[in-house]
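## tool: complex_structure
## caller: assistant
## args:
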Amino acid sequence: MRYWLIKSEPDEVSIDDVLAAPAHTVAWFGVRNYQARNFMRDDMRPGDQAFFYHSSCAEPGIAGIVDIVGAAYPDATQFDSASPYYDPKATQEQPRWISVDVKAVRKTALLSLKEMRTMPELSEMRLLAKGSRLSVMPVEAAEWKFIKKILK
DNA sequence: GCCAACGTTGGC
DNA sequence: GCCAACGTTGGC
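## result:
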């Protein structure tokens, strides 16, 4: 069982949207970075948990906790020429990008990026590393524990 | 809107 | 395989 942080732009899909969805579950799609994809493909498993992070917004930070509820499957948007996530090099036979379904465990009070940067316990966190911009990244067990404890 | 830090593409 | 040019992410 592993821990993750996954990013979403709340203008696209927020933690409220996940909670409002049937079974509190949505497809988390649109990853178009190989390193991020490889984490999903190789290391992410059903039953893993993730912090749901709001990015590219007024107050970026952790906004909730989700479960990974199923195995990865081809991201449908790669085949959709009308989608901004369309990838002309992907084929049905050889999909390039994958999605997972995530289920909201709960919404939390926002733990902002700014606050996290002030916490010595999180100084080694991948999210806070210079130049870090992966949309899926592992979270160390100790960091997970610490953050979970302070999340309201 | 700016820009740092990456990542990707494609000519050679 | 190198690397310049270009594109993207995402905080600010």
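## assistant note: The helical segments of chain A are 15-20, 34-43, 113-117, 141-150. The radius of gyration of chain A is 15 Å. Handing back to user.
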